[in-house]
Design a protein that fits this description.
The chain is mainly alpha-helical. It has helices at 19-48, 58-80, 83-102, 107-127, 129-132, 138-166, 168-186, 203-218, 221-251, 258-281, 291-302, 310-341, 345-372, 377-401. Helix 3 packs antiparallel against helix 7, helix 10 (258-281) packs across helix 12 and helix 11 runs antiparallel to helix 12. The protein is globular, with a radius of gyration of 21 Å.
């Protein structure tokens, strides 16, 4: 049976390892791997084309800007079309962006186009899981999705940096090929009938509904706490990527494209370890216990200024990642719980994405301004780490003093 033409199905296999689920996981792995490789390929392209060093973080600004602008619309759009089709269109946009860089079109505009594709892809890839598998398999399906994504981040970062050292055009061409392969995998996803038709998606109504959900969610102290914490984490993570690119040649004397990518991969490994520890020791009722790890994360970044050996750099990045994983995982779970009980988990994720991307935009923007002003990378790292620790400490103190340390509600949503 064709999955690309004809009427959409109303249901599909509910087993965990159906053909559709395998296609989704394959597409997610290839697309996420290409996303992470593309960043290092694009950074190498800017150096190859002699752009000023301070322009590198602008790539992230163009990418994040697409997420912010499209935040109220991508969820309703994903719900109005078969989600496999939405994922196919999103990967198509990413493919065009990567090919555009290959043929010399402005890299900032092309990276922004990739951001448009990524913004559309996100709600579809998670939303389709509940359509492809039974409810009792949904947690396992999410686990498979996250495992696929983590593996893709590691291989994408390492592969992108390594390939860029070999050939920048070659690296970008391979990234484009990965997007193309992801699109082929999307063709194997069953076309399941959407909950509503495209004609029901109204821009004005989408904005009003998004605004109402935002107001409702931010009225909940626990949700505000979680959104503030996760936004700080992802803003810091985005800034760290560019900070490492500038820091490695100064502190370690290594000028390859691969080494910053390897250090970023070490951060990802640390996040996995920290997430595992958080799952063991932190629950929704004591989610605030993750905050000391966030403070330690900022302090660890400050130590970058004193590191001069590769071994110490890898150890420090592992510590940074572990602190980050322990910090962010309980806060993510808390927000999902609060969203499920109020505005719905989909709306909560969309609002979280908006807040996180605004924070990324601001923090990467500050880093860009400091870089353009000629502030040394060690001074930038120390300032960045101190601000991160101070912000999380202030968040912790506020909730303790105000008596609003969040705990999971004891009654389920009616």
């Amino acid at each position: 049976m064709s999955t690309t033409s004809g009427p959409a199905m109303t249901s599909t296999s509910q087993s965990l390892w159906s053909r559709g689920m395998a296609a989704v996981l394959t597409a997610q792995f290839l697309s996420a791997m290409a996303d992470n490789a593309l960043l290092f390929g694009a950074l190498a392209l800017l150096r190859h084309q002699n752009y000023p060093a301070w322009t590198a973080p602008l790539l992230q600004e163009f990418f994040v800007g697409a997420y912010i602008i499209l935040a109220p619309f991508v969820g309703p759009f994903a719900d109005s079309r078969p989600k496999g089709t939405v994922m196919l269109l999103a990967n198509g946009l990413k493919l065009v962006g990567a090919l555009g860089m290959c043929v010399g079109i402005d890299p900032f505009l092309m990276y922004g186009l990739v951001g448009v594709g990524a913004a559309a892809y996100s709600p579809a890839k998670y939303g389709i899981l509940s359509e492809l598998t039974a409810a009792e398999n949904l947690v396992k399906a999410n686990g498979l999705m996250e495992s696929s994504t983590i593996a893709a981040i590691l291989l994408g970062a390492i592969g992108g940096g390594t390939l860029a050292d070999w050939s920048v055009p070659g690296a970008l061409a391979i990234v484009a090929a990965c997007y193309g392969a992801a699109a082929v995998a999307n063709l194997l996803i069953p076309r399941i009938a959407p909950a509503r038709g495209f004609e029901q998606v109204a821009l004005a109504a989408s904005i009003r509904n998004f605004g109402g959900a935002l107001k409702t969610l931010l009225a909940l102290p626990a949700a505000r706490f979680s959104i503030a914490g996760t936004s700080l984490f992802w803003g810091a993570g985005s800034t760290m990527r560019f900070l490492l690119v500038a820091w490695v040649p100064v502190a370690l004397g290594i000028t390859t494209n691969g080494m910053p990518a390897y250090l970023n991969a070490m951060v990802a490994i640390g996040i996995v370890l920290g997430a595992g520890l958080a799952a063991k020791f932190v629950s929704l009722k004591n989610a605030h216990l993750s905050l000391p790890a966030g403070i330690l994360l900022g302090i660890a970044v400050c130590f970058l200024a004193g590191v001069s050996t590769l071994t110490a750099a890898f150890i420090l990045m592992g510590i940074v990642g572990a602190c980050g994983g322990f910090f962010v995982v309980p806060l993510n779970a808390l927000l999902q719980d609060q969203g499920h009980r109020s505005v719905g988990s989909g709306n909560a994720i969309a609002i979280q994405n908006l807040a996180e991307n605004f924070t990324m935009l601001a923090m990467v923007g500050c880093y860009t301004l400091m870089s353009r002003a000629g502030v040394s990378v060690n001074a930038t790292a120390a300032s960045f780490g101190l601000c991160m620790s101070a912000s999380i400490a202030a968040l912790w103190i506020y909730h303790r003093v105000a008596g609003k340390v969040p705990a999971a509600p004891v009654t389920a949503k009616a």
